[in-house]
Model the fold of this input.
Amino acid sequence: MNIPRTSLPRVVIIGGGFAGISLAKQLGKQEIQAVLIDKHNYHTFQPLLYQVSTGGLEPDSIAYPIRKIVKDYPNFSFRLTNVDAIDTENKCVHTDIGDLNYDQLIIATGSNTNFFGNSEIEKHSMAMKTIPQSLNLRSLILENFEQAILKSDLEERNALMNFIIVGAGPTGVELAGALAEIKKGILPKDYPDLDIRQMKINLIQSSSRILPAMSEIASEKAEDYLQGLGVDVWKNLRVTNYDGDLASTNGDVSFRAATLIWSAGVKGATIAGLDGEEFITKGNRIIVNEFNQVKGFDDIYALGDIAAMQSEAYPFGHPMMAQPAIQQGKHLGKNLARKLNGKEMKPFNYRDKGSMATVGRNKAVVDLPRFKFQGVFAWFVWMFVHLFFLIGFRNRMVVFINWVYNYIRFDREARLIIRPYKNTRKS
Amino acid sequence: MNIPRTSLPRVVIIGGGFAGISLAKQLGKQEIQAVLIDKHNYHTFQPLLYQVSTGGLEPDSIAYPIRKIVKDYPNFSFRLTNVDAIDTENKCVHTDIGDLNYDQLIIATGSNTNFFGNSEIEKHSMAMKTIPQSLNLRSLILENFEQAILKSDLEERNALMNFIIVGAGPTGVELAGALAEIKKGILPKDYPDLDIRQMKINLIQSSSRILPAMSEIASEKAEDYLQGLGVDVWKNLRVTNYDGDLASTNGDVSFRAATLIWSAGVKGATIAGLDGEEFITKGNRIIVNEFNQVKGFDDIYALGDIAAMQSEAYPFGHPMMAQPAIQQGKHLGKNLARKLNGKEMKPFNYRDKGSMATVGRNKAVVDLPRFKFQGVFAWFVWMFVHLFFLIGFRNRMVVFINWVYNYIRFDREARLIIRPYKNTRKS
Done:
């Protein structure tokens, strides 16, 4: 991998997501030799991927070059590669560009879409965890409208204009809301040949309320908002199969739809060498102690979505979201500094800052630890918080301008089929 | 194609480039039934593609949804499709989504990269006529740097950091300048492991000066600027072959390079049914009269790059650039209105507004009909003109902000490998 070993302890970080970048920022000035590895050369701001899928934002404004982050840290190197396996005995990471030895290893590989073993659904549905996936979805939505115009058969046309979203967590809810705004604001203008009433957005949730991780009032309000926007919300319903055309459920309904977006869950992105049963718990996550150390090692740590730090308050680990990842990254950075200076590490304490979801213009729900609110103010808070956590001044400016523009004009201009999805899928 | 015929005369426009859009804007309010066809759902602002390739702008800000343009014209329809052939006898366009009859047909298909029959060069080199091509080049440039770090063999590393640009028209010159700015501003910060001196930019021109279509003073100044930025300019040299590694020439030099960008020429994008020898002249262009009518037809027109309107001043037709396309589109729009109202059409007169090229920050050359200038002011004029001709307020804002940011920070933040090019090429 062409990284000569120095006399400094070598810290290898796998993954440049929220956890990895938060850790890197903390370790930036430390006396270590750090190597950050990722399979992309950019950090993705995942909470806004749904806006890329729906033409509200360009992909480049929610991505940030990892090299631009680590360039300020003289002891950091970055390598663009896939990790094949970890050899804990020889303290070595095997990658497709060679081996890399470590003194301290941090696993911040995040999570992948969880299809719960249903390969038929995996094959035919759209996921939304990466920028290429979001761009594929953007292309598909627009391609479906273009195709719908050409169909004289009503059933075929309806299927092309029917969007099924499985899973009503924040991603599913936000995507449903954005599609509803496309139906209202874009469809009648761009596609006067199509009957707006034929576009259906079905949001399907297996449990008894949407946004199940939020408060009941948030769930209720969000559902009200969605219904007001014309989204059909289905609760206590589970999609059991999807063949690219027909989505079957455990209830007595089924849906004909050309598009099914799967946002029903994620699972830890494990790595060979640390994926033995003794390491892994529910959701494919690696069990860690209160210092984020992997069971049985004092030199291997796991952070963020991939790490399950089980406690009384969080028996299955912290929620797989940005906040625990950011906080764990920062905390581990401080702990590693303590350790390098011969001091004791401190246990991690999660500070739940609350959670939020937006449904559409002027419509959001916010749960703070002390109080909960919904509506216009919640929507402003949602925007402010997302702008604040975006990396990079230019990205913030461009996102801000797009939001102002979209708000004033009821528009989403990035409705571009730059790489057709259907052609890609065929080949 | 699901477009019922109305009693109005049907005008079919093939191509949503500068010519097609300029015509559409002119015909927007006419009493016709117009159908605009393009293989993309967006208009591309081609003069700024090189900035997409070099990470200065996001692709979405130089593309504009065609449906958003024609939605204001009640008599316009848009169809996303490829044209297979034209049947002039039955006045019909064959496409991959069905046939379309026309009363008046306008061919505004533009041009493709001209490899002058060398399939080896075509296979291995990068073109830059479309947004996907520009994004492929962006990925490749960055992938090459990532790979160069890993090579201990000096020759291999040099080849990965050697960029050959063939053809020193505006595109080649602007790309060379942008790569030089990457070498100076990005490479040392992002890739401290690489020796900046190993990055070479070779600009190769077959004739005796660069920017041959511009004034001699512009050529000289541009060459000065490029040399100041560290670009190696080769004149009177022709690349005869390229196998993906070695570029041979008609001189006694050859180059080992992992990247060769071909900007040495374009040729008209002809259509079956109108590609007979009697219609076509030099550069694969369709011969048209002074009303843009194709020889032998009074209901078929060609516009822009694809059209060769031969005159004393322009014996081979107008230059294949945005300005003639825009002016011809506008003029034909007026002529068609005259024709529909039973009036005489007027011959087209090209108003040469001059030409310009930018080399880098504060460095551009401008040839106006009355005077020529270079340097900082030329650079501002270049930027102003390009912002002015961009379609869409949001695009202008986003491009402007990126330019201000890039100028102040000596930066180009869109250095993202969103879809790896090398993996795509392999598969």
Observations:
- Chain B has a mean pLDDT of 95.
- Chain B has two domains: 10-39+81-113+266-340, 119-264+361-426.
